[in-house]
Amino acid sequence: MRSLPVLIISFALCTGVFAQETISRNSVTPSDLSGWINYLASDQMKGRLNGSPEMDEAAGWISARFKEYGVQSFTEWPDYFQPYEAESRGNIVNEKNVIGYIPGIDPALKDEYIILTAHFDHIGIRASVEGDSIYNGADDNAAGTCTLIGIAKALKMNGIKPGRGIIFAAVSGEEIGLRGSRYLVKNLPVPVESLYANLNFEMIGHSEYLGPGKYYMTGTELSNLDDLINDYSQDRNISLIDTIQMASRLFYMSDNAAFARISVSDG
C-alpha cells in the first residue's frame, strides 16, 4: 500500500528523525491502513457526504482512533469536534472538524506546532456507474485521513515524543470549497505565529500512475521540504517525483491552501 512509505516519511518529518532509522515498520502495517481505509470507504458510509449522518459516524470513528493512539483533545473541544456551519448545494449543513494534538517536549520548540491535515469528506451518492452509485472516496481521501491516524499510532508504538507539538486535524468540507480548513485557520487552537509547518495528505492511496515506492508533493517551491525528504529517502527505495503536471494548481485545490494563504496575507 502506497500510504506506508508516505506515512514513514511523514513520521520522520514530524519527529525530526533523519539521521537514523528509529521507526519500527511493524508499528503500523499495511493491514492496519487497509482496514481503516476499507471502513471509511465502505458502502455503509455512503460516500461521506457533508452534512450526512455518515459524516457524523466517520468523525466519531476518527476521534476514537485519535484517543486510542495518544492524541489529546484541546480544552475548547474536549470531544475533538470543532463544529461549524457551511453551505452545500444551497443548504446550510452542520459539520465538524476532528482536532487533537500531541504536545512537544523540547523546551526551545514545544511552543511551535506542526499541523497535519487531511479531509475526510467525499461526494456521497451520485449518478450510477456500472450499477454502483456510491462514490466511496478511498483515495479521496480516506487514505489521507488514515495516514494521520497511522502517524499517531507510530508515535505511540515507538514511544517517541516530538520536540514540537503536533496538531492532528481531520477536516470536513473540502469538497464544498475547503470549508473545514478555512474555518480552522480562522479559529486555530494555538496562536497563528506558533505554526511551524502544515503537511496536508491528499489522495495518496494509489500507485498506478507513479509506480511503487514513488510519491509526489505540491508546493515544493514554497519550502525546502522536498530537499529534506530527498535526503531522508536515500537508500530507502523511495523517491520523490517532481514532474507532476498541474502541481501548482493542485496545491491550491486542497486544504493546504488555507494555511498557505495565512503566510501570504501575513507577509
Q: Could you list some keywords that capture this structure?
A:
267 residues; 8 helices; two-stranded antiparallel sheet; alpha/beta; 5-stranded mixed β-sheet; Aminopeptidase
Describe the SSE topology.
Layout: H1 3-15, H2 30-40, H3 53-68, E1 81-88, E2 91-102, E3 113-119, E4 125-129, E5 132-134, H4 138-158, E6 165-171, H5 179-186, E7 195-200, E8 214-216, H6 225-233, E9 239-241, H7 247-251, H8 256-266
Parallel strand pairs: 3-6, 3-7, 8-9
Antiparallel strand pairs: 1-2, 2-6, 4-5
Helix pairs in contact: 1-4, 2-4, 3-4
What does this structure look like?
With 267 residues, the chain is α/β, with parallel strands linked by helices. The chain has a single domain (3-209), classed as 3-Layer(aba) Sandwich (Aminopeptidase). The protein has 8 helices and 9 strands. The strands form 3 sheets. Strands 1-2-6-3-7 form a 5-stranded mixed β-sheet, with helices on both faces. Strands 4-5 form a two-stranded antiparallel ribbon. A two-stranded parallel sheet has the order 8-9. A hairpin with a 2-residue loop joins strand 1 and strand 2 (91-102). Helix 1 crosses helix 4, helix 2 packs across helix 4 and helix 3 (53-68) packs parallel to helix 4. The longest helix is centred in the middle third of the chain and has 21 residues, at 138-158. The model is unreliable at 17-21 (pLDDT under 50).
- End-to-end Cα distance: 39 Å
Structural class: alpha/beta
Instruction: Return the domain count.
Output: 1
Helix share bin: 25-40%
Tally the beta strands: 9
Q: What's the CATH first level?
A: Alpha Beta
Enumerate how many helices there are, as a single number: 8
Q: Work out the radius of gyration.
A: 18 Å
